[in-house]
Amino acid sequence: MDISRFERLSDTAWQIPPTGAMRVPGVIYATEELIRDMDDKVYDQVTNVATLPGIVKASFAMPDAHWGYGFPIGGVAAFDPDDDGVVSAGGVGFDISCGVRTHLTGLSRSDIMKVQGELADALYAQVPVGVGSEGKITLDDAEMTAMLAGGAHWAVARGYGRPDDLERIEENGRQEDAVPSAVSQQARKRQRRAMGTLGSGNHYLEVQEVAEVFDAGAAEAFGLKEGECVVTIHCGSRGLGHQIGTEFLREMAVAAATYGITLPDRELACAPIKSEVGQRYLGAMRSAINCALANRQIIGHLARQVFRRIFGEPDLPLLFDVSHNTCKVEPHAVGSVARHLYVHRKGATRAFGPDHPNLPEALRRWGQPVFIGGSMGTESYVLVGTRESEELAFSSACHGAGRQMSRSEALRTWSGREVLDRLKARGILVRSPSLRGVAEEAPGAYKDVRAVVDAAENAGLARKVARLAPLICIKG
Amino acid sequence: MSEAGDGSSTGLAHWEHFQHGADIGVRGIGPSLASAFEQAALALTAVLVNPGTLQPSETVEIELEAPNADLLLYDWLNALVFEMGTRGLIFGAFDVAIEGNKLVARAHGERVDRDRHQPAVEIKGATMTELSAGEVHPGQWRAQCVVDV
Predict the structure, then answer these.
(1) Which of A222, A352, A409, B143 sits 20 to 30 Å CA-CA off A440?
(2) Whose CA is closest to A241, among A70, A95, A68?
(3) What global pTM score does this model have?
(4) Using an 8 Å Cβ cutoff, are A319 and A369 in contact?
């Protein structure tokens, strides 16, 4: 993007003053270099979001922002229901509550490397992954409803994981005010055999080594020790969330005009929070959040089974589970007034700072863990939320690296076999059902996650705690 | 354009992909709206596998109605995503008829064979980004949108 279109607030904060229909400014947190590399569409999408009714403060974009659907991926926007604010299906996206969880293993790199091949094969056999994979669980309609209302609590009650996992999951493992009856039969049908499946694309299960610690205090509180390994899972609400996104995007795109909302882009489809369709969407979307929480809880359980079989003791305590495609009601101070806002984070992570009441006791002093996924074969980061992030962007941070190359270009550039061999030579084992999928997800197809993480830290959105390097990657 | 199938060099009915950041655009071109819809569906399949390698053995019937051609395309591609997800099928051939805002179609496919097909990526949904369906030149119709993968 042309940097001259922005007002520089600092080295890592750039503002688009409101013009035309914009109700608030746009603000992008990134370095000049990252902004120059961003697509012009990010500018358009940040400014389009700024035109939506009831938006508060600004339309924000994180350092990993890229061209999304209506909202930029890496977009954050909060809406006030008492100011005709809206909820947007496009602002949450198709993969509702896609997110990341990390389990601690207490095992060293050498423990893992001794059985690396066996462990990779066992995880690949245990966790259904890729197109056409199905879980071992079949949900009838009553169980589906219970899952949509109960989230990870439902999973724990069915024997997937432990009660002490729940406090380490956003919303304590269950999104309140879910309305399962707002979820269509089509969405339910897509999920019937999909519980406990990883999906494909950029979703993964990785065994990672803590390669570097930046913040010794936070790392100790998080249980992260240099040289020890963790298991990280990245996936979302599967077909159910995709179907809810598809259905409400269409319904809201048609309905917006009836509410007098002019959409600069159909993909920004939204409805007033207080409208019937807005409330129905919120009920369905919250059900999809519970589906994602339950899904990751089941996959965490499957990983535990494998580790128990191979290593005996380790029980893989959960460090934290956090989503990055959501709309959540949160209290935020706007000026001197506390307001309950509907915060949309599309490809952006909630990042509560120290002493936030929603955090579990053991983490509260430090702040919320924030997971920044790299791509297959590249490093990931653990960050921690800061106090300043509340003022900067409603306590939000980035979520990943973002692609720099299209899938077809990646396919022309690398073969899947070549990518697998190259990673193997670096000590990283990949298991995937699709060589074409591996080529499309090649590490070089993604941006350098380091630049994104450094920008987030310098902007004050979150602070670096540890760097994770992959040893095993299970990929769809 | 990154990939294309069937007749792209002759101007006959064909499909192609176009780029969209993290995802991929599907585009069908043909002598009628129905033909463009058939080609867009082939482009959708090509996101997963080479449509030419499929051996259709099962048929699914789809009937849809929408307020306009754009939303009819959105519904058509998402109906295929739904059928793929719930039936475990990949579709390699299509017969589409469109009258006014109504679509009647038969999609011919086969069950996903993960070893043989090696499907690259799951499609989450067809989106409204770059969504358009209509006549772009006399006698040439185009149907396109970006799909989220």
Answers:
(1) B143
(2) A95
(3) 0.96
(4) yes
